[in-house]
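FAQ

Q: What does a record look like?
A: Structure on top, sequence underneath. For example:
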């Protein structure tokens, strides 16, 4: 008794896969061709100013390899997390509202809503745990000193103090 395994392809079969491969190769060739064409045509005029760092029209001060403040990185990551959260809320709301399943029975719609509710509660719980971690360890506080954190209020009360 031998088992035969048949490969099941979408409608179009091998022609569909070949068409997709040709499409990808032509896209790659167009991109690389444009880069090569630009490299052959553009003038080569090296200059010291072209190699310098440029930041919003300001003249660069000091070396470009400086230690990057971790707070900027944390703020960017927190923004991305909450941005993705907002992007995921719309499809969740559509599913929870029953969009696209109007022909389904009320029992099926209730099951989908229940599953969507628990999925979103789990998603929010993970976000809240991450937010509480950031808050607990002070990653959301902007003003720090080395070794300890200070608040803006403490900074304002110590402005007039001068160490002897």
């Amino acid at each position: 008794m031998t088992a035969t395994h048949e490969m099941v392809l979408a409608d179009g079969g091998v022609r569909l896969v070949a068409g997709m491969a040709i499409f990808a190769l032509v896209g790659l060739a167009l991109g690389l061709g444009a880069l090569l064409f630009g490299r052959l045509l553009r003038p080569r005029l090296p200059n010291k100013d072209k190699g310098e760092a440029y930041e919003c029209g300001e003249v660069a001060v000091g070396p470009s390899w400086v230690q990057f403040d971790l707070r900027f990185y944390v703020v960017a990551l927190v923004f991305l997390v909450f941005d993705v959260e907002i992007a995921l809320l719309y499809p969740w709301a559509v599913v929870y509202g029953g969009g696209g399943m109007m022909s389904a029975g009320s029992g099926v719609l209730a099951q989908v809503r229940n599953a969507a509710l628990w999925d979103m509660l789990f998603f929010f719980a993970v976000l809240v745990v991450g937010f509480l971690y950031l808050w607990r360890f002070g990653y959301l506080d902007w003003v720090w000193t080395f070794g300890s954190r200070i608040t803006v209020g403490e900074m304002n009360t110590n402005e007039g103090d001068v160490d002897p």
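Q: Is there anything notable about this one?
A: The chain is about 55% helix and 0% strand.
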